[in-house]
């Protein structure tokens, strides 16, 4: 599997350090919470980020899960975000933190933010590990960003291509011949 990677963009150590710093920022943001927060995690790409992040958070928290599909099969282009399923605690009046792996066109986060807001939470905050800054729409509010990256398609640390490579411990780019031709 490692042989399929042409370039490591963010190393395992750099991810660990940045996730720790993000957790510190979030701990400060939520220092005043008494009833804890609800993390709404977007599956499946965010599971590794979530697992590493929450073990560094000191406050009480619950997890909600939401599945959005936009990259069906062997594709590196969004085909439009669709809400596939949701398993969420009651969000009304609660402090909600949405977690996603990567912000690209913003279709996914916009869909999830709208869905969460419909449940009338007290406050909605969004954190992403990666942001493709050139693509991300200016009018989509994101409060915490791990790393800004270039527009290329990346895998690892939860992110997949055609369902694979989520278990790479770093963020990298695949060799070009591995991507199936798309019309
Ligand atoms: P958006 O809806 O275009 O912002 O895309 C966000 C979703 O698409 C993310 O939650 C990822 O699941 C997926 N995605 C976007 N860019 C990449 C990438 O470079 N590698 C893997 N998945 C990606
Ligand atoms: Mg995703």
Output mean pLDDT. 93
Tally of individual domains: 1
The strand count comes to 8
CATH level 3 topology: Rossmann fold
Characterize the largest beta sheet: strand count, sense, and whether it forms a barrel.
6 strands, mixed
From the N-terminal CA to the C-terminal CA, the straight-line distance is 26 Å
Q: What is bound: which ligands?
A: inosinic acid, magnesium ion
Determine the number of helices (DSSP H or I, runs of at least 4 residues): 3
Q: Estimate the strand proportion.
A: 25-35%
Content-based structural category? alpha/beta
Strand order of the largest sheet: 4-3-2-5-6-7
Radius of gyration over C-alpha positions, nearest whole angstrom: 16 Å
Task: Give the low-pLDDT segments.
Answer: none
Helix content: 10-25%
Short descriptors:
alpha/beta, 31% strand, 183 residues, binds magnesium ion, 6-stranded mixed sheet, binds inosinic acid, Rossmann fold, 8 strands, 3 helices
Structure in words:
The chain is of the alpha/beta class and 183 residues long. The chain has a single domain, classed as Rossmann fold, CATH 3.40.50. Helix content is 21%, strand content 31%. The chain has a six-stranded mixed sheet with strand order 4-3-2-5-6-7. Strands 1-8 form a two-stranded antiparallel ribbon. Strand 2, helix 2 and strand 3 form a beta-alpha-beta unit. Helix 1 crosses helix 2. The chain is globular, with a radius of gyration of 16 Å. The two termini are 26 Å apart. The model has no long low-confidence stretch (mean pLDDT 93). The structure holds inosinic acid (IMP) and magnesium ion (MG). The site of inosinic acid has 19 residues, from strand 5 and helix 3.
